[in-house]
Amino acid sequence: MNEEIKMSVSTITRTKDSKAVYVLFTDGDKSAEFTLPDLKLISNRGFSNDEISQLTEYLDNETDQIFKVAGSIDPMKNFLGY
Fold first, then answer.
1. Shortest CA distance to 58 belongs to which of 12, 14, 7?
2. Within 13 A of 13's CA, how many CA atoms are on the CB side?
3. How many domains does the chain have?
């Protein structure tokens, strides 16, 4: 796996009675999307099973920090380009 994998994090979304965050990993032409906190793999294009396991382990270890980042995102500020 490339050392320069990019990770994008959504704002916190609400699904029924719980909060969720979407996380997208990209590495060249490869991409994988997960939801937190359930660590569900939504889509995978090109990552091997071993790489997906590594990404899942990373997410499991960093869930709290990722939620902090997601909570600090201002969607209107980002949308307007500030």
1. 7
2. 9
3. 1
